[in-house]
Amino acid sequence: MDENKMLEQIKCAAEDVEIPEHLRPEAIDDIINTANKAKKVHRPIYQYGLAAAACLVVVASVWLGANTQKSGTKTESVQMARDTSSADAAAPAEASESGAGSAADAKAADSPIPTPGSYEDLYEKVANAKKQQLRQVEESASDMGINYDGAAGAAEGAAGGAENSAVQSAAKYEAASDMQKEQGFSTTNLQVRAVDEGDIIKNDGQYLYIADTLDNTFQIIRADGSLMTQTAELSMTQKMDSIYEFYVTGDTLTIIGASSQASLKQNTSDDVYRTVLSNQTVTVTYDIRDRSMPSEIGSVTQDGYYETSRRNGNYLYLFTNYYKDELPAYPAQYDGYIPAVNGRLLTADCIYLPEYIQDSSYLVVSGIDLRKPDQISDAKTVVTNGQHYYASTENIYVAEEQGYGYDTNKTEILKLHYANGQITPSAVGVIRGNLNNSFSMDEYKGNLRVVTTAYDSKAQDSTNELYVLDESLNIIGEIKGLAKGEKIYSARFFGDTGYFVTYRETDPLFSVDLSDPANPKVMGELKVTGFSNYLHFYNDHLLLGLGEETDPKTGAHLGLKLSMFDISDPENVVEVHKYVLKDYNYADALYNYKEMLIDPEKNIFGFAGYGNRKGNSVVDYLVFSYDPEKGFINRLVYGEEDNESGKLRGAYIGNTFYVIQPFGETSITSFDMNDKFTKSGTYR
């Protein structure tokens, strides 16, 4: 369907719908900001139809996700049919970069999720799921007096998951990475310290790497203190439609982007032809041993919109969402409903089919050996539609909410084991409620800990719950009924202790004892004003919170808020310092943790703040440090008057701090951290 037509249908369908209070424009500013600034937009319709689509989702919640249930059948995992070139045939098995060896590989050899017996079997089940979806949309729309004409499909696209984020608690605390400590430069704020993630800004201690996702270009800038010189610029127009993010692995650069192809197809019932877009995600890898002359060494394609990715050692794991508006007329038209990776359709034994499916989206995941970047190590797909992703060093968890808003009653969690570039669906489980984001999940000693907010559709109220799941994702411990009427805004896990924030008028920070997985217990509850959207362990006894300050009586927004919690005694957590930024009402880092630069070892963190000063909208980059006696100390406030992109990112190399405006006419401003952040140089 044409996007303009789709948008028009959304508008028409929503015209007569009374918008609930919690979905009125003033109430969804943060949602829109999140979609526009923090989320990598999948479909172009997102940025135009979010508010209208959100309303439709409430009245027509059809895209309920894959209702995967555990199956007693164990199907042996079969690797995707590979290219039979001599190079692949001779490739030896390699040790896992994460330390997982043959025992882990053997453990992942079986999957509890069945595969279809054939493409035809898959076609029949997906077709039935689509019919059920349409029937539910029409029934819901009819109940609300809405003239349905395909608008719910657009609503599903516009109301997709907000962000993907997680954290691993195995490390002592989330200080700077080993590279930061040894070489003195900032790195991407990661979900798990041992698992790399893509970003639009990176540096390696000598060079700044910048992806301009608006102009679809990539720059390499040599940064020597205040002296900044461009060594290379890549135009990606011939390779991809737009850049999502990238990785730098030693002397290897991998850029991930979107690609689409248009084709004409005839309707089965008449002679009308229509334009069909085929959406793919593409990775292009370069040898950058010579930073002035990047040389392409391989590329791969994968059907579907980009969801997320992870890099563990020399292997990149790529996740896409493959979705077709319409199925082909006949099962034999395989390319109409079977996803392809690197130009080859996945075989039926690499497609995992839940026992009951209610969504016709596919999660496609592949492994790419960056030493052979034109080949796929393995690829699998599951008929599901995940929203939140959390990756430990051995497993990736995909959470899919069943329904939306007050109709949400459960979340399904899919567990994928990964090692040596191989992927195997290994478990599936269901819990009550839905996740705030992927920080709500954490793997520790083989168990998965999850916090959710559950809604009671009859009472129109909420409660908060914690679950502990074993390796097979069976529930072995739980806490229910916490903070009735509130919802979870942030969570973090630290060994045997979990922390999460709920909010309605005040911000209770709960601490939970998880030392006995079968009997988790609430240890303490601290109530303070406002709430924290993001939590980060600053050291082994301090927890940093970034969020919003609010009036406890009226709920009015009073500005961004920094909180430092002393967690040395989990039963008596104390907010030892807070800092309210009254001029700012939003920060990208609230919803996208990679927007924050943070290095507790260097005692520095920074993020971009959005607000209003003297009647004018402002975007400033803010840098802080923390003193146990004085509290938060503001080291830098820097903005650019001509910053039309509204985007600023931070990085540091040695004692030089760089504020980067990455879009359009890229600009970089350097500051001397040894001289009270005095401005020292510029690059335009």
Automatic annotation (TrEMBL):
Superkingdom classification of source: Bacteria
Comp. bias intervals (Low complexity): 86-112
Positions of region (Disordered): 70-119
Keyword 4Fe-4S found: no
Alphabetical keyword list: Membrane, Transmembrane, Transmembrane helix
Ranges annotated as spanning the membrane: 45-66
Biased amino acid composition, Polar residues: 70-84
Protein name per the record: Beta-propeller domain-containing protein
Gene source species: Diplocloster agilis
Lineage: Bacteria, Bacillati, Bacillota, Clostridia, Lachnospirales
